[in-house]
Amino acid sequence: MPQKLIVIVGGTGRQGGSVARTFLSLPSWKVRITTRNPSSPAATELASLGAEVVQADLNDTSSIEKAFTNANAIFLNTDYWTVWRPFKASLDAEGKSYEPASEKAYETETSQGKRAVDAAAKIPTLERFIFSPLIDVIKASGGKYPRSGHANAKAWIANYIQTDHPELFKKTSLIYLGGYNDNPSLAPRPNEATGRYMFILPLKGSFRMPIINPSESTGKFVRALIEDEQPGTKLLAYDTYPSINEIVSNWGRENGKEADLIPITIQGLHEKVGLTWEHLDILSTLMETDDYMAGVDNYIEPSQLKSSKI
Ligand SMILES: NC(=O)c1ccc[n+]([C@@H]2O[C@H](COP(=O)([O-])OP(=O)(O)OC[C@H]3O[C@@H](n4cnc5c(N)ncnc54)[C@H](OP(=O)(O)O)[C@@H]3O)[C@@H](O)[C@H]2O)c1
């Protein structure tokens, strides 16, 4: 059997790197990763494992079209924070508000996603297209919380596939990643006065938060979506799905420390911890809907995958 080719956009990142390493271990697949910098340590490491590394930038249509040539499968992950972080830092330094960073990052991520989707739709060999979105916070909150650009940009891209590329949509599956296991908002802070640790969160103790190690686990789920599942599958991908109370007690047990869930309002997080509405609108939506996948219909969870290899 001739090998198939998967092209991974964001192959040097956490999600894409996991997908690359998984497919490099499968004899039936060849792996091509895209990067803006083929000489970076992440790119050269994947090259040494056998990946074809091509220079491509989601801001440059022709580089992406070239990178997708002859692909049988494409994994697309877009990155909001690459644009948001440095722009916000420059605005902070000038004493300005952060909102223009969100506007610019939203505009950039949606344009990049559109460019990649348009390019994928032109590839005649393509059988499977996997995109990694987040929930649509505007839709899930009924328009109440419009400012989480990092989630809304990805939801826009997922919707664009369906509305503007019906043939590509027939080949598409979506992988919704759980919260990253190293997400700083889920990390406790020491309370100097008591010696205990505090998880300062606006979420109820009973709220269930799917958690994934993206660098380890994304690949096995993407493999299952490509090799085992029908296109059109929406998967919530996670390693564990604990409640916030369980996250706190598990952390305390694993680290031999006493830890507490310290409730805080969204306004309190904004004023005392300095989180922007970019981060808080999605938290408000999760809190009010009591659902990490608010607004997403008909998705499956890892236990519902056909594969016995997960
Ligand atoms: N934190 C969480 O709990 C959580 C949960 C779910 C989803 N997410 C989302 O995950 C996304 C980040 O994924 P990640 O963690 O895998 O990213 P990451 O490790 O930060 O890597 C970013 C990747 O994006 C690529 N990239 C950036 N700009 C690019 C451009 N202009 N053209 C082509 N490639 C570009 C980088 O490639 P090169 O630098 O090599 O070009 C790199 O491979 C974010 O958008 C975030 O919203 C986060």
UniProtKB/TrEMBL annotation:
Family matches, as SUPFAM superfamilies: NAD(P)-binding Rossmann-fold domains
KW NADP (keyword) present: yes
Keywords: NADP
Keyword Methyltransferase part of the UniProt annotation: no
Domain NmrA-like: 3-271
Name recorded for this polypeptide: NmrA-like domain-containing protein
Protein family membership: Belongs to the NmrA-type oxidoreductase family.
